[in-house]
Write a structure and sequence with these properties.
single chain, 206 residues, 3-methyladenine DNA Glycosylase, Chain A, globular, 14% helix, DNA-binding, alpha+beta, 9-stranded antiparallel sheet, disordered C terminus
Length: 206
Amino acid sequence: MTAFPMAAVAATWSCSLIQLEQSFYAQPALTLAQALIGKVIARRVRRKVFHARIVETEAYVGSHDLACHASKGRTNRTEVMFGPAGRAYVYLIYGVYDMFNIVAGEVDDPQAVLIRAAEPLNGWSADLSGPGKLTRALKISRADNGVALTSDRLHLLDDPADRPQIVATPRIGIDYAREWKHELLRFLDPTSKALSSRSGLSSTPR
DNA sequence: GCGTCGATGGCA
DNA sequence: GCCATCGACGCG
């Protein structure tokens, strides 16, 4: 037969992807949030690995940023943001959803990037078009808080061929953050069909 | 298609 | 008493 065995196809596909190392994350949240658009989440659940391409992020740029949880101080919840970059910061919102963030910047400078939406890759199908839906589908929870993103269970890959267009807009759901609510700290790939429903672009015809 | 609202629990 | 959300519902 002419068809490749499925395992061979998958191996060929992932060969073009390079795992991001810890040093990649040690940059300001402002630039990391943009660099993460087009990167691929690799999430292992038991024996299976699921891949998803990030299409929407938000930067939380430090303790002076009124929308950043660390602006209220260093607490048990925000502790991981004060540590080294490249770890997961996962917390519960509205008593319902876990939010997946990636710690950015330097030690003692609490910055992070919220992963808001992604599109499933490699034949897998799921609705990842929102931060709550994404963590539910990828089974990311507070149990993953503090995990290094160089781990086997959860890490990120770079596709050097993926050079996404990036649009900046205000962040979502932070009306309380005074002047910070207007800052252009949300980034997205405007060509994606998997943007969050509150993105203002997800249903825009093209 | 759009606005409004309730669920739900950890945190300060 | 607040939320870095989602989905259901009412309206039209």
